[in-house]
Amino acid sequence: MGQQGAEAANQASPLGQSVSEILSSVRALVADEADLLAAEAKVAVHTLVAGVVVAVAGAVFGVLGMAALLAMIAMQIIESGYSWPAALGCIFLICSLISATLVFTLRGLISQELFAGVRGELRGGARSRW
């Protein structure tokens, strides 16, 4: 009986050890996946921040470029013999026309069926149009 108990202890020990090794391997796999997920999240955040910085810089330089273009137009108007108020009035008219064009373009995009459907669902009623 003593020999059978020793054999049972030898068999139980490798089985317990195998289960312990499997559990430690699963823990290591979960830890590796968590590290990989954290690294991917860090790269995604860095990419997002870089994208926002580039977009803002592009917008700023675009606005500065448009301001320079409008200043050149105003200077050409003044060199043609018109007064400062006339030149600034022309620039104002140009800016107003561009703004109106952009507003109507945006309104056309909003009135598409996709946005109208979402708007109707958010209001909780039937689809309504502007």
Mind explaining what this structure looks like?
This protein has 130 residues and is mainly α. It has two domains: 1-81; 83-130, no CATH class. 89% of the residues lie in helices and 0% in strands. The protein has three helices and no strands. The protein has helices spanning 2-79, 84-110, 113-123. Helix 1 packs antiparallel against helix 2 (84-110).
**Element-level helix/strand string:** HHH
Distance between the termini: 91 Å
Major sheet: none
| Poorly predicted sequence stretches spanning 5 or more consecutive residues | none
The residue fraction in helices comes out at over 70%
What is the total domain count? Answer: 2
- In DSSP terms, counting alpha (H) and pi (I) runs of 4 or more, how many helices? 3
In short:
This protein is mostly helical and 130 residues long.
Chain-wise SSE layout:
Elements: H1 2-79, H2 84-110, H3 113-123
Helix pairs in contact: 1-2
Task: Identify the notable features of this structure and list them briefly.
single chain; 130 residues; mainly alpha; 2 domains
